[in-house]
Amino acid sequence: MRLTCTVNGTEQQVDDVWEGESLLYVLRERMGLPGSKNACEQGECGSCTVYLDGLPVCACLVAAGQAEGREVGTVEALADADALHPVQQAFVDAGAVQCGFCTPGLLVATHDLITRHGRPSDAETREALAGNLCRCTGYEKILDAVRLAADRMAGTAAGAGTEAGGDR
Amino acid sequence: MEFLQPTTWAEALEARAAHPDAVPICGGTDVMVGINFGHLRPAQLLDLTRVADLREWTTEEHAVRLGAGVSYARVITELGDRLPGLAMAARTIGSPQIRNRGTVGGNLATASPAGDAHPALLAADAVVEVASVRGSRRIPVTDFYTGPKRNAMDADELVAAVHITPPSGPQQYSKIGTRNAMVIAVAAFGLALHPDRRTVGTGIGSAAPTPRRAPAAEEFLAGELDAAGLWESRAELPAGLAARFGELVAGSAAPIDDVRGTAGYRLHALSVMARRTLTWAWAEHRTASGNDSAKEV
């Protein structure tokens, strides 16, 4: 079947999609967007987390046809051409990346968390990231990265109206 | 494989009637796992996510009519105050990603004995509304589960909604797993105290071939509360009452040994969860009493 949906702001159309295929397979194998990772294929690990109509979901559990006409946002769209997104930069700076396989899913889940909560408590972070498994870091560095990203993003938001002009 | 994508409820029922072997899919949290692992190869997938009616909830005759396609995330954020027991169960489900997709309708259609919503629905005397091109009918949730992953629906029927009356008293939910998130329950228990009717509702999960109630425990507790005038006095529960309630709840279970736990562990866990949830619910009932008397004074 043919699938048409908006991915990272651009309308995409792919043909010969098998009806039982997941959105994850379509993104990785048909649209050339391998950022979302394929690991458990059962919604357990969160490494394929993408936005579907603005909500974080496991792309492996979305049937391709269910994305018809919908808006999909992947980890590829977080950074702009020149710079990493503050969430990505915080993961680098805090050492929250080891093998990196879980990272794309954690970045999307963290982006959603900070967008909704601003500066989440540690308990809110643990709850929000409960569906993203990391087998390397032990999660402490990930919590550091979330705090760092939230602080920096809050600073940017506050700075826009106050310090930014004077400091520069 | 064919991908059927009705956009109205009438079209969905027609598609169901034409393809009784089609597998309905909503959040996909069970169906896609089956397809990804090659266990499920239906001739048709019947996608229900385009049917707007299914994603709505309304209030009808004092009860909430919860559309089958409302996600667990929305049960928590939009109905946490009205349906506390179900919202508590919803908070234990999967992860944010799973709660954004999974639905109560899917839980009912799958009818797994381990489905997290079932104990809360049983305790709250929920009623399932199913429909086909022949019309719709309502099935008390107590009669809905007919066997492991089997339910009382005919081949041409779909779950339309579930009707749940907001409670007159406290509700509680408890679930045992190896961690808080992303677990299939080893055992689960839902409790509802109904002071208006002077009855007690219970629901057992993951400890019998189907989700089921614990009638002996319900009758015992309601009887004891009645006999001692505790519904009104809201005094402390007599020593040993909650523990006896827990034993009777475990007595209604029929668990098996499996990869998630042994039958013996499940029985023990159920008796503990029933005792604890009653203790929590009764504390809430007593606090409500304190507020009332404060007002009267």
Automatic annotation (TrEMBL), chain A:
Q: Which InterPro entries match?
A: 2Fe-2S-bd, 2Fe-2S-bd_dom_sf, 2Fe-2S_ferredoxin-like_sf, 2Fe-2S_ferredoxin-type, 2Fe2S_fd_BS, Beta-grasp_dom_sf, Diverse_Oxidoreductases
Please verify whether the record's keywords include Transferase. Answer: no
Entry keyword set = 2Fe-2S, Iron, Iron-sulfur, Metal-binding, Oxidoreductase
Q: What is its EC number?
A: 1.2.7.4
Q: Which GO terms describe its molecular function?
A: 2 iron, 2 sulfur cluster binding; anaerobic carbon-monoxide dehydrogenase activity; metal ion binding
Q: Which organism is it from?
A: Modestobacter marinus
Q: Which Pfam families match?
A: Fer2 (PF00111), Fer2_2 (PF01799)
Give the domain of life: Bacteria
This chain belongs to the protein called Carbon-monoxide dehydrogenase small subunit
Q: Does the keyword 4Fe-4S apply?
A: no
Question: Which residues belong to any copy of the 2Fe-2S ferredoxin-type domain?
Answer: 1-78
Automatic annotation (TrEMBL), chain B:
User: Residue limits of the FAD-binding PCMH-type domain?
Assistant: 1-169
Q: Which residues form a coiled coil?
A: none
* Flavoprotein listed as a keyword: yes
What the entry lists under Gene3D superfamilies is as follows: 3.30.465.10, CO dehydrogenase flavoprotein, C-terminal domain, Uridine Diphospho-n-acetylenolpyruvylglucosamine Reductase, domain 2
What this protein is called in its record is CO/xanthine dehydrogenase FAD-binding subunit
**Does the record bear Flavoprotein in its keywords?**
yes
What Gene Ontology molecular function terms does this protein carry?
FAD binding; oxidoreductase activity
Q: Which domain of life is it from?
A: Bacteria
Q: Which UniProt keywords are listed?
A: FAD, Flavoprotein, Oxidoreductase
